[in-house]
Design goal:
Elements: E1 3-10, H1 14-25, H2 27-33, E2 36-44, H3 65-69, E3 76-79, H4 86-97, E4 101-104, H5 107-123, E5 128-129, H6 140-147, E6 152-159, H7 162-174, H8 178-188, H9 196-199, H10 202-216, E7 225-226, H11 234-242, E8 245-256, E9 259-270, E10 282-290, E11 293-300, H12 304-319, E12 338-340, E13 346-356, H13 361-371, E14 376-384, E15 389-396, E16 399-400, H14 401-412, E17 417-427
Parallel strand pairs: 1-2, 1-3, 3-4, 4-5, 7-9, 9-12, 9-17
Antiparallel strand pairs: 6-8, 6-10, 8-9, 10-11, 13-15, 13-16, 13-17, 14-15
Helix pairs in contact: 1-12, 4-5, 5-10, 7-8
């Protein structure tokens, strides 16, 4: 006879509701595929009276988290509250300390407290699973933990946020402004009413931290360069297209000479590259390692259906009785590697200057590049006689990031500058 695994779902928003209905509807199928029977014993939501398109029996409603945590019948808690502090944090810490398995989609919590939570889970021999925290239905975490376990990984990068990818690809396809596309994204449900974390790169940053520790068997580290897409405008999109590039918000984590570089920023990539073809709300992750070479994982990065797919994958792992280390290896074996900032990394870059159209400006700009020993690969000047201004676009050869930023800041102080310059790094791989 199969064992019953009693589940508590905490949080009944769009994802929690979708998961509840899925587990009820597919209970028989999941039981057949696994060693145990998934049984929703309790649920909790902040607003119990909220109108929902399904019915939850009264006996399943918990009054508070303590009722769930102290219930000896509960084996597994699914946390879908969100946020790195408050209720979500308290629930997960208490659940693991009470020897309950935990499944979550909470990337912010893991990025901040993952090391501590992994230690508690390992000590109490319970699972702490978070496939849904990175790229929704794209099984990147399970791939790193299991499918690619034989590989020594040296680099992982990709499109990790569907909202920003939708905005940039829509600006490219439809020649719309950033604000126009953002409103479209909100209307279609691709962006929250307050999409700050998506637009400023924080969402990608949290996900990249999690991927880094899985790839390199390291502890989580906050030394990460983060830029968002709010400063990308239609002119940058058009210029990139003319130069044979697309602009994508990418997250990179690389192991170079036993040091890790974590960075999130808009990037110019060749239109012919695979990742340039990933448009809309899709996510794509590229893993480079030995012996696999390059491996690509792509799919829907967000939404109730995609997230539920990842949650059920984690729940099924627990139903099978697999006790695993949260970050693939024991906490005692994880490394404290050096995390460097990007100042010393070499990049080619796109720089755009809006200047007064007058003699001597161009020579002054190029002299600043020369003084900082950064060579110019390509230069384009587009004058606007009606406005008495000119747009100067410079593509550089590879140079240290600190030198590129020094040049930009130096030129921005000049009297001929009409508005703050742009710098977008280029990835030619």
């Amino acid at each position: 006879m199969k064992k019953k695994i009693n589940i508590a779902i905490c949080g009944l928003g769009n994802i929690g509701s979708y998961l509840y209905k899925y587990l009820i509807k597919n209970k028989k199928q999941l039981t057949e595929k696994n060693r145990s029977i998934p049984n929703i014993l309790l649920v909790y939501a902040k607003n119990k009276k909220k109108k929902r398109n399904f019915t939850i029996p009264k006996k399943k409603w918990a009054k508070n988290f303590d009722e769930i945590i102290k219930n000896k019948k509960i084996d597994l808690i699914v946390e879908l509250i969100g946020g790195s502090e408050g209720a979500a944090k308290n629930l997960v810490f208490k659940a693991l300390n009470h020897k309950k398995h935990v499944v979550t989609a909470n990337k912010a919590l893991i990025a901040k407290y993952g090391d501590q939570l992994a230690k508690i889970a390992e000590k109490n021999r319970v699972n702490f699973e978070f496939e849904a925290s990175v790229c929704g239905g794209v099984p990147v975490i399970r791939s790193l933990k299991e499918g690619l376990i034989a590989n020594k990984i040296n680099k992982i990068y990709g499109i990790l946020n569907g909202t920003s990818n939708y905005i940039l690809s829509s600006m490219d396809k439809h020649n719309k402004t950033f604000n126009e596309v953002l409103e479209d994204a909100k209307r279609l449900g691709y962006a929250e009413s307050n999409p700050r974390a998506d637009l400023n790169g924080d969402d990608v940053s949290s996900k990249l931290k999690i991927l880094s520790t899985l790839c390199f068997n390291s502890f989580l580290n906050n030394n990460i360069h983060v830029e968002g897409i709010k400063n990308i405008d239609r002119d940058d999109i058009i210029n990139a297209k003319k130069l044979g590039y697309k602009i994508k918000l990418l997250g990179f984590s690389e192991l170079i000479n036993n040091s890790i570089y974590q960075r999130v920023h808009p990037t110019l990539i060749k239109k012919s590259s695979y990742i340039a073809s990933i448009d809309g709300v899709l996510n794509a992750v590229i893993v480079e390692g030995n012996p696999v070479g390059q491996s690509v994982i792509q799919g829907e990065g967000a939404g109730p259906a995609a997230t539920t797919s990842a949650l059920v994958s984690d729940i099924s792992s627990i139903l099978r009785g697999n006790i695993k280390f949260p970050f693939s290896i024991s906490n005692n074996q994880r490394k404290r590697l050096k995390f460097n900032d990007i100042n010393e990394r070499n990049f080619s870059a796109y720089l755009r200057f809006e200047v007064l159209d007058k003699p001597g400006v161009l020579s002054n700009i190029t002299s600043v590049f020369s003084t900082n020993k950064v060579s110019v690969k390509r230069l384009i000047q587009n004058p606007n006689k009606n406005k008495g201004s000119s747009t100067i676009i410079i593509i550089t050869h590879k140079a240290k990031d600190k030198s590129l930023n020094k040049i930009r800041k130096s030129i921005d102080k000049k009297s001929y500058i009409l508005r703050k310059s742009k710098l977008i790094r280029i990835d030619d791989n």
